[in-house]
Amino acid sequence: MGDFYQNGIITTLHNLANRSLQDLERELMEFSQERPMGLILPSLYSELEGDALPAILDELAPAQYLSEIVIGLDRADEQQYRSALSFFSRLPQRHRVLWNDGPRLRALDQQLRDQDLAPREMGKGRNVWYCMGYVLASGRTESVALHDCDIVTYKRSMLARLIYPVAHPRFNYEFCKGYYARVADGKINGRVSRLLVTPLLRALKKVLGEMEYIEYMDSFRYPLAGEFSFRRDVLNDIRIPSDWGLEIGVLSEMYRNFANNRLCQADIADVYDHKHQDLSAENDQGGLSKMSIDIAKALFRKLATRGITFNSETFRSLKATYYRIALDFVETYHNDAVMNGLTLDIHNEEQAVELFAENIMKAGEAFLARPMERPFIPSWSRVISAKPDVLTQLRDAVEEDHEEFSRSGGSYAAAN
């Protein structure tokens, strides 16, 4: 249970009373009459074969306030897409599965690519972007939540608390970021957020001086959380990265597009755990190593757009400052773990800090070497301006896939 303290410049909505799920959902049902609600689930096909996603669907099924669930399916062939249609058929809500690797969506992607409007690389960012486009095309929801499909501790109350701030008709929030304690199995998790993002933001303050953008980013208790919610109008103008910088990119776009009083963060869970990435110390193209480089580059790009000039000396100073701050954090987290009866391996923590320090330099070098790199996917408003019928094409492609492959799926087509 959190306290009422407000830190930073973003409103924090705490869990002060452990309000019952029944009360929350009763209100959400009332809100849905004025603000229909939806959910985006970006998924790899492999997640359908794991333990987390089936349990998530069991939890979601009773969420009657949801008008639509949009599933983005990556890395699936035709047989796997058919299997996915059957897998998600247990959901009683209207739902659609975007077969991102199917011929119809591939053809649309090629049309956009020909006009330099398509996502430049595969990944979660691309998946989320197309799901956002379908939400705009469908027009069935006003408030939309998004969360990952690998949450092994998922409870429906997470979704209720996540979407509540943007669904309440008398709240003025356009965006809500979820947060939670990354504690599971007697350990403190969330290494990239704890040991990279927070100390890197503090180091940027020391090297660059006080900046509202850095203060804004440092206001989020768990900036890398994959759970957030927004009003539908947010989707038109947001530009998101296609790499591991997605969460940082979304927060940065909300800072660019909206006043701080239209944004909030909410405590959505007491316990949270999901699939863990390897540190990948020997391979900076995978695991937490690649993630740390992409995240650092995302921050550097955003600061550059705010007039900050970087050079090699800046990054060397930043690395040294980060390293000292991060090592101090290791001691802080260790003491916190001990007091709470948890375990934390100081050696492994310091190894991660050493890797992240090196990757800050790699991110800086990559930024200086490719200053004109465009990792952001164009906003949907730009795409619509260049190709006015794109949302109709997207909706039709999804619906045609659904109709064609549902016909052989028995009760699935009849139920949807």
UniProtKB/TrEMBL annotation:
**From what organism does this protein derive?**
Mangrovimicrobium sediminis
Which InterPro entries does the record match to this protein? Nucleotide-diphossugar_trans (IPR029044)
One GO term in the molecular function aspect is:
transferase activity
Mind telling me which Gene3D superfamilies this protein's record contains? Answer: Spore Coat Polysaccharide Biosynthesis Protein SpsA, Chain A
Any idea which UniProt keywords this protein has? Transferase
- Protein name as catalogued: Glycosyl transferase
Q: Which domain of life is it from?
A: Bacteria
